[in-house]
Amino acid sequence: MRRLSLFVVFATCAQAQVTAVRFGRLIDARGEVHRDAVVVVEHDRITKVGSGDAAVPAGATIVDLRQYTGLPGLIDVHTHMTFWWDPNLGTRPWAQLGTLGPQVTTFMAQENARKTLETGVTTVRDLGSSDYDDIAMRDLINRGAMIGPRMFVAGYGLHVNASPIRPGTSSTPDPGTADGIAEVQRVARQQIAAGADWIKVYGSTGSDRDTSGYETFTYEEMKAAADVAHFAGKRIAIHSYGPAGAKAAVRAGAESVEHAIDMDDSTLTEMVRRGTVYVPTVDHNRYYIAHRAEYGYTEADSTALTEYVRRNMATLRRAIRARVKIAMGSDAVFTGFGENTRELDRFVEAGMTPIQAIATATTTAASLLGMDQELGAIAPGYYADMIAVEGDPVTDITSVTHHVRWVMKAGRVVVDKH
Question: Which of these three, 368, 385, 403, is where a domain ends?
Fold first, then answer.
């Protein structure tokens, strides 16, 4: 049972008909632990899961990871992959955003993609970009021209007009700007025409150091966006930092609500009834606090973010008790890539078991994407997306959030640190 170098694994996984990956332990989609597990891979799919020497097909290329625990590839359901920052230019991340041009941005965002894979995340839902850079990046990855996680993208997020018209000036509105039902319908259809997989709506204020959560779109406008998405066979995610926008988003038929704090019991109950997924993104504000020097945030900014984290955690605990579906979303931007899975630490802190937390980034996330028969599990017919971690994920979530050693995406090894 030989250990293979990264080069050899890349070559053999691409060429061999059958690869057998051996784990000391394997955690399946139901959280059950299988010892001395063997996962048989052909091309980009899993064909068999067994145990012991007898499960290894004759002539298979063997990847021996028996010192590690295997898990399905993880899914981050809220990223901004094309938000890349060059610190050498002397500008803050938010000030630099959109100034490098789409070609440079898309090319350099490969760094974010690489860091994401290193966390064990093999699939992302990317919720907002400019110049349709996310669509370009998704397509480059899909055709093998760029290495990165599988991407489901939203193009421009829909938002209300925030700039007054000034006499004597003219400017082209942001392509995501939409005011009123007709405009919401038009802009949502434009994202679909451009190739978006999801519709993203900014249903409230709030972003980076702004922790306000004032509802922006009305319920009727949100429903118009949801109806366009659903008519086209797409899904919709609605951003709301505050409870009012979240309540309207749930009523409007959003598949997921992002960020929201202070949701009342009736909203949580309705989320359970409808199967709406809560993506709390608690850790991204912890990230902003830890990286405040990069962003130029003040002590007052950090205080406001800390208070938002506290309320976010309180809402998350209530959602867990209410049995709302919860999915892992990092809201990763700029230097946040490489910390994509730290949200799982927050979930365990809020009361989930490590296995429950892992489900938020596997089975629940895959179901949200409509990919629950292909992603989020290690089982025959599923994509061969797998990771190997050091430690015991059943008792210690940090084995997943800090100790990923090997990653396979669609039958190809993309990270090897063992």
Answer: 368
> Taking Cα atoms as reference points, which of 127, 87, 98, 149 lies closest to residue 207?
127
Strand order in the sheet with 121-126: 74-79, 121-126, 150-153
Q: In whole angstroms, give the CA distance from residue 159 to residue 145.
A: 32
Q: Are residues 250 and 396 in the same domain?
A: no
Number of separate domains in the chain: 2
Same domain for 53 and 162, yes or no, is no
What DSSP string runs through 369-394? TT-TTTSSS-STTSB--EEEESS-TT
Same domain for 217 and 270, yes or no, is yes
Task: Tell the residue number behind the tokens 């490590």, with chain if given.
Answer: 354
Task: Express each pLDDT in 365-403 by its tens digit.
Answer: 999 999 999 999 999 999 999 999 999 999 999 999 999
Domain residue limits at 401: 6-73+377-416
**37 strand-pairing partners:** 23, 51
pLDDT band (50, 70, 90) for residue 165: low
Please give the single-letter amino acid code of residue 352: M
Q: Are 207 and 170 in contact (CB under 8 A)?
A: no
Residue 294 and residue 386 share a domain: no
Asked if pLDDT for residue 7 goes beyond 50, the answer is no
Same domain, 60 and 96: no
pTM: 0.94
Q: What is the pLDDT of residues 301-343, one digit of tens each?
A: 999 999 999 999 999 999 999 999 999 999 999 999 999 999 9
Do 240 and 345 fall into the same domain?
Answer: yes
| Residues shown for the chain | 418
